[in-house]
Each structure stands twice: as structure tokens, then as C-alpha cells.
Design brief:
Elements lengths: L2 E5 L15 E2 L3 H4 L10 E5 L2 E5 L4 E5 L6 E5 L5 E4 L7 E2 L8 E8 L2 E7 L5 E7 L4 E2 L3 E3 L5
Antiparallel strand pairs: 1-5, 2-3, 3-4, 5-6, 6-7, 7-8, 9-10, 10-11, 11-12, 11-13
Length: 145
């Protein structure tokens, strides 16, 4: 069964011990302003790797067939992910830009992630488990990917 946890960048600290040591904390600059902009930068730490994400924070996905993974969008709109052993946050292949992640899908053949842009367009990217390769971003108007 897949679980998704939204780790809010506005939170002072979040620890999900059941999923490993994961914390998200707002940067001093973000916490000292009254802005609630979704593009404001905030530090997000997942699997011990810290990155700068927008106000939507990071999502932790407990994949059934693959390793747990965190996803987030930087203030610039670039799309990032990390997992245990990755060494750092990694920009997802395909040069995508988004506002936030909206959904995650998985079956035994692979997994897909879905994002929305500031203009309301939806895009997906698929990772084939047989090759462990993410494809490119493609537009979608369906509920899935």
C-alpha cells in the first residue's frame, strides 16, 4: 500500500519516526516574514538531505515496489526528489517546471508522479522499474498518469 505524507515547509519541525528520520524546518528568512507565498523558499530535509523548496514543502511517498522517496518543487519551479542513499536532492530528468506535486501512482511495472503548473496544466513523469529510468514530462488531462 502506498502512503503519502505532506511535509509542510512552514512547520517548525516534523518527525516521522515510522518512516525514518525526516524533518522539515522553515529557514529563518521564511519564518520571519508574514508571507505565505507558495514560491517562498524554505529548507526541507528528507533522508538527511536538505534542499530549498517552495512553500508547498516535500511529499514523502512510501512506494510499495520501490524505495521510499521524497518529492518537492524549488522556488524556481524546478522539480526535485531524493531517497535514502541518493547523496542529495536530485533534479528530476526532463527539465520540468511545476508549482507543486498533486498525485503519485504505482504498479509492479513502475511509478508515476503528477505535478501542476502555475497556469493549471498537469504533467506526469514515469519511472519504469525494469530500467530504473524516468521518462520525460508529458501533459495529461486525466485523473491518472
Amino acid at each position: 500500500m502506498k502512503y503519502r505524507f505532506r511535509l509542510s515547509a512552514a512547520a517548525a519541525a516534523v518527525s516521522l519516526a515510522a518512516c525514518g528520520a525526516i524533518a522539515v524546518s522553515a529557514s529563518p528568512a521564511a519564518s520571519s516574514t508574514a508571507s505565505t507565498s507558495s514560491t517562498a523558499a524554505a529548507a526541507a530535509t528528507c533522508f538527511g538531505y536538505t534542499g530549498s523548496l517552495n512553500g508547498y514543502g516535500a511529499d514523502l511517498v512510501d512506494w510499495q515496489y520501490g524505495p521510499d522517496e521524497c518529492f518537492g518543487v524549488a522556488p524556481s519551479g524546478s522539480i526535485w526528489h531524493t531517497w535514502s542513499g541518493a547523496g542529495s536532492w536530485k533534479e528530476m530528468p526532463g527539465n520540468g517546471r511545476a508549482l507543486r506535486f498533486v498525485d503519485y501512482f504505482e504498479n509492479s511495472a513502475g511509478k508515476a508522479v503528477k505535478v501542476v503548473t502555475e497556469t493549471g496544466n498537469y504533467y506526469c513523469n514515469y519511472d519504469d522499474y525494469a530500467t530504473n529510468t524516468w521518462g520525460g514530462w508529458y501533459g495529461t488531462t486525466t485523473n491518472g498518469c
